[in-house]
Structures are given as C-alpha cells and as structure tokens.
UniProtKB/TrEMBL annotation:
Full protein name: chitin synthase
InterPro entries reported in the protein's UniProt record: Chitin_synth, Chs-1/2_IV_N, Nucleotide-diphossugar_trans
Enzyme nomenclature, EC number: 2.4.1.16
Organism: Callinectes sapidus (Blue crab)
SUPFAM superfamilies linked to this entry: Nucleotide-diphospho-sugar transferases (SSF53448)
Record's keyword terms, sorted: Glycosyltransferase, Membrane, Transferase, Transmembrane, Transmembrane helix
Pfam families for this protein: Chitin_synth_2, ChitinSynthase_IV_N
Length: 648
C-alpha cells in the first residue's frame, strides 16, 4: 500500500505531456522522459491486482484498484494543463483553470459537499459487500467502544515439510477472541489528521522562505522510501521479538512475512517495480526542485488549490505545488546599459517616450520589465546635524552598493535576480534658502544644505572602505527653489529638492505631498504608455519614506518588499524602529517603540486599520497612494484646530 501511493501521478503526467510546446528547451528529450514516466505509472494499474489475484483468486475487489488510481490522479489536473497547448481539449481545460482562479472558493463550497457525499457512499457500498449485516456499518457505538474481535488461527507452515493449500488447512478447534482497545479509531484518526496538517504547514513554510529544494522537495521524495524501510525494520524486530511494539494493538499491526522478510518483499511482492513508480513520480513533480516564486508568497501563489489530501499528503502537496509560479523577467528587458550622464528621469521612461506612441496598439502590451520593483527613497530634512545626516547617507550608499551588485550580475552574468530592484533617492529640504550676507535681494542655500554636500564624500568613504570622491552635483533651477543631482558610485542617483518657503508650502506634510505628486504623477502617470502598463508599474512602485537621521540596511528594505509583495491588497508596511544610544531615557524609548510596534500596530492590523505608519521608515505601494481620495484627503488645507493635530 505504501509503495502504491507513488502511482497516482498518471493523469498529471499525461496532461503535462500534452501541454508541452515547441518553445520549451530540449522538448524532444522531455517528451521521451514523459512517455517513460507514463509507462512506469501505467504498470501500477496491473501489478498489484495481479499479485493479489495470484494469492487469492476469489478477491475480485482488487480489480477496482486501476479505476481508483485513475480517478485519484485526476485531482491534480489543474496544475498540469496549459491554455497554450496545441491540443484543443487541453486548451479548454486551461481556460477553465483561469476561471477557477477567480471563483475557486465559491465552487469548492459545493465541490467539497459532493466529495464528502460520494466518498461516504463508496465507503458504505464497499463495506456493505464485505459484511453479512449491512447495518453494522452504522453501528458507531460498537466501533468506538471496546468489543471482541474474533481471530481464527491456522497451523503454522513448518520449514522443509509439504504444506497443503490454504483452503484445506484445518483451523484450530476454537476461535480466539481479542478485545479491542476503546477509542483506537479516534486515536488513529487524530494521528493521521495532525501529522498530515504538520506536513502541510511545514511544507508551505519551506516554500515561503525559499528553502524548498532541501526542506520540501527532498523530504517529499524520501517519504515513501523511508516509510518502507521503517516498515521492513519493524517487521524484522517483530519477528525476532514478538513483544516488540506493544504500544500498537496486535490486530492493527501490519502483516509481516516469516523468514527472510526482505527477500520475500522484493520477489513475491514485486517490490522492485516500485522503484520505477518512484522515479516516474519524481520526474512528473520535477518542478518542485526549481521554484520561481518570491519570498513569503501567498498560499494561492504556492499551490493550485489551498486544500490538501491528508490521505496522500506527500503526493498531494508535490502535485499541487504550482508549476508556473511567476513569469521570468528577461535580462534584455531590464535596461542595464543606461548612460551614465542621463538626466534625473529614468532611462526606462525615456525609452518609452521615444519609441512608444500612445495611439499604438503595442503600447497596451504589458512587458515583463513592468513588473520590476522600483523603490523611491524619499527623505525629508530640515535642520539635521552632521551625525544624523551621515547616518542616512551611509544607508543610501549601502542601498546603492547592493543595487549595483544586482545590476552588474544581471548585465554581465545574464542571471535573472528575482529580488532585483531599481533605486532612486529624493531628499526634500524644507526652508533650504536664506538671505545672502552680500546681497539682501539674493537667496543662497543655508548651512544645512552645504553640510549635506560636504558629507557626501565622507559617507561614501566609510561605506566602501576607501577614499572616494563623488562627482559634484548637477544644479538645476526649479519653480519651488532648486535641485541638486548626484550620481553615486553604483550609478543610482540622489536628488536633493531645495524648497524655498517663499515659493512653496513648507513643513513635512507638504514635502510628502510634493514627492508623491512628483514621483507618481509626473514620473509615472504623465508617461505616454497605456493605462494597463501604468497599473502594473504602479503595483510594483514603492515609496520608502525616511527621516534625515535614519540608519538602515538593504536587508531591512528587502523584508518590507517581501511583506507588500505577499499581499497585493497591502498598501503600506512599516519597519520596527528604535533609538540608538545608552541611558535610562534611551531604554525607555526602546520599550515605548517596541510596545507601539509589536502590540499597538499589530492589534490595529488585525482589526483592519493601522492608524499611523511611521514616516521615518515605511514602505508605501504606489498604487495604493494613487487610489481614490487618498491624495485628495492628504492635501486638505488646515482650517480648524483639529486639522493641525491630524494633518500637520
């Protein structure tokens, strides 16, 4: 029975074969391997019925096994059909698969009820043909209480003597009743349910944190070999010591052959055929060794159906694991050869504006590069001191170093990095100008802007552990004041927006309004591309809000990205922040921040409304900020006393 569970992949293998296209690499070799795997799976339809029939020709029920395998293997059809197949039937199933993606839970309300009824009906019919009294099937009180089980013993086969056929063996003069243990069916049921649930939970966890190869695929392929090895070992111990495994009731212990157990297992039960079943299942589920989903992916992205089959748990989660996690991003679409002297507008958008016309039908075609993560780090500054500024600049330069390493790896090694992102920093300086000492009619940048310019080289030297001089920033006049643009060693940019309070509203909220409209309105919505492409880009565009004294690492940003990618309905995610230093006041602040993050915000998250996401280190999804009335509400002018508390 344990070996036979490797034979339930026939229909997935058949659908996978019929779904192959010529666009795949080495398609001829894959088709040959599919045919061999199907042939191996097909042997399971006849081997066990033949073995059991040879043992007892009167047992006709064994010929139900092929039908049971065939119908069971249909349970995972959805994962192996493709609408791009050249066979019309497979295309039809592929279209059904797409519709099920949207209506799965509604359909399963009725499908689950049908499964329960059909499963129960088949069980009743099967048991009814084996019992003399059909009403015994519904006698639950006797089943779950202690009752006698009649066991008729036959004479033991003596080695070296002729033994008559089993039908002529005379039973002993009396039947030995064995009392059953009360509650045993409940214990067996609970053990099965609990262990299957643990297997599913830990398997899903391994897929979520991207350790699927060693912690998911490898254990699944070893489940049946290890189980069979343990069964054979237990039989050997039981044969040597009859009192072994007393914790298992004798009437529930599996059948063990006397004598050479391993030889009898391999020859009489044709166990060597099982190796072909195992290898064929491994080939059909080969996709579980090469996952492509992102970290912390949702259950719907990991598995075709969020449910599992507890009776065949290892086959269920292997065949149910999605084959088409995500489409690959092509390296030629990543725009890795941008000019070093381009202006502050992304080269990607310039390419669109030059080569794409809004009236062109091709403009609506979504590119794989539209799904690249774009992070705009937005920091607000006012009167930060030297220590605070240099900490933030070092954090930005670490992000520049990390992004550069990913970009270079893709450009020269042609490796698609699923965590690749584009990065750009925007610093908004409030009240950045002051009256010149030489001319009262002229405004010049204040000492804090000069401090930022002077600290750029020091921060780069500290991060890269060598003396580095960054090119002086380019200066641009702007309606709100001015703009300084640095190109960092990793080719990302820092854009400092210098606000003149006589030309534009000052304070932090209006700086946030400014960068939201600039980055999401001007740099995205004003591009001559289709609305569909803008929607996809907005879905993968994120604003990383920072304070001028923040210190963080690229791994902290990656955790926030993973969180918002896990749930497309998530609009913002905030990192846990804490002050640095020593002393009682600092420790109190650490405690206060921890309470606010782990208790207050976690509670608000479960309720469904987080009241505040700290602006010092939070990640906002661009599409969420562009939703109806979000920016309109945030740009409300303060006209009442409570507005100054709520908004400013």
């Amino acid at each position: 029975g344990a070996m036979f569970t490797n034979c339930v992949a026939f229909m997935p293998g058949l659908f996978g074969l019929l779904s192959r296209t010529r666009k795949e690499s080495h398609v001829a070799l894959k088709v040959i391997m599919d045919l061999i795997a199907l042939a191996c799976q097909l042997t399971g339809f006849v081997v066990w019925p033949i073995v059991e029939y040879n043992k007892n020709p009167d047992v006709w029920r064994t010929w139900i096994i092929p039908a049971a395998i065939f119908l069971t293997s249909f349970g995972w059809w959805e994962n192996y059909v493709d609408k791009n197949s050249k066979f019309s039937t497979i295309k039809y199933f592929g279209r059904i698969k797409e519709r099920l993606w949207k209506t799965r839970y509604f359909c399963y309300i009725f499908a689950s009820l049908w499964k329960i009824l059909i499963f129960f009906a088949i069980m009743v019919l099967s048991m009814g043909t084996r019992l003399d009294n059909f009403s015994t099937v519904f006698d639950l009180r006797t089943a779950f209480s202690s009752h006698s089980i009649n066991v008729t013993e036959v004479r033991e086969r003596l080695p070296g003597l002729l033994v008559p056929d089993s039908s002529t063996v005379a039973p002993l003069e009396h039947t030995q009743p064995i009392p059953s243990e009360q509650g045993t069916p409940i214990y067996v049921f609970l053990i099965q349910v609990f262990t299957a649930w643990l297997c599913y939970i830990f398997g899903k966890f391994a897929c979520k944190i991207c350790i699927q190869g060693f912690s998911f695929a490898f254990p699944i392929n070893l489940t049946i070999p290890v189980s069979i090895s343990l069964l054979i070992t237990a039989c050997g111990l039981r044969f040597d010591h009859a009192c072994s495994f007393q914790v298992i009731p004798e009437y529930l212990f599996w059948e063990c052959k006397n004598g050479d157990i391993l030889n009898d297992f391999l020859n009489n039960d044709y166990a060597w055929v099982w190796l072909f079943w195992l290898l064929s299942q491994t080939w059909i589920t080969l996709h579980i060794w090469t996952p492509k989903c992102e970290r912390l992916a949702s259950t719907e992205k990991l598995f075709v159906t969020p449910m599992y089959n507890s009776l065949l748990i290892d086959q269920s989660i292997a065949l149910n694991r999605r084959r088409d996690d995500e489409g690959d991003v092509k390296t030629e679409d990543l725009n890795l050869g941008a000019d070093d002297h381009e202006n502050e507008v992304s080269q990607y958008y310039e390419t669109i504006s030059i080569h794409t016309d809004s009236s062109n039908n091709n403009a609506s075609k979504i590119k794989s590069s539209d799904q690249i993560t774009r992070i705009y780090a937005t920091a607000t500054m006012w009167h930060e001191n030297e220590e605070e500024m240099i900490e933030m600049l070092k954090s930005i330069l670490r992000m520049d170093e990390d992004q550069s390493a990913r970009r270079v790896a893709q450009k020269y090694l042609k490796i698609v990095d699923l965590d690749y992102y584009e990065f750009e920093t925007h610093i908004f300086f409030d009240d950045a100008f002051e009256i010149s000492d030489d001319n009262e009619d002229e405004n010049v940048v204040n000492q804090f802007v000069k401090l930022l310019v002077n600290l750029m080289d020091d921060a780069a030297t500290h991060v890269h552990q060598t003396n580095i001089r960054i090119r002086p920033p380019k200066k641009y006049p702007a309606p709100y004041g001015g703009r300084l643009v640095w190109t960092l060693p990793g080719k990302t940019k820092i854009v400092a927006h210098l606000k003149d309070k006589s030309k534009i509203r000052h304070k932090k909220r209006w700086s946030q309004v400014m960068y939201m409209y600039y980055l999401l309105g001007f740099k995205l919505m004003d591009q001559p591309i289709s609305v569909d492409r803008k929607e996809v880009i907005a879905e993968n565009t994120f604003l990383l809000t920072l304070d001028g004294d923040i210190d963080f690492t690229p791994s902290a940003v990656a955790l926030l990205i993973d969180l918002v990618k896990k749930n497309t309905n998530l609009g913002a995610a905030c990192g846990r922040i804490h002050p640095v230093g020593s002393g009682l006041m600092i420790r109190y602040q650490m405690f206060e921040y921890a309470i606010g993050h782990w208790l207050q915000k976690s509670t608000e998250h479960m309720i469904g409304c987080v009241l505040c996401s700290p602006g010092c280190f939070s990640l906002f999804r661009g599409k969420a900020l562009m939703d109806d009335n979000v920016m309109a509400k945030y740009t409300t002018k303060s006209s009442q006393a409570r507005h100054y508390v709520q908004y400013d």
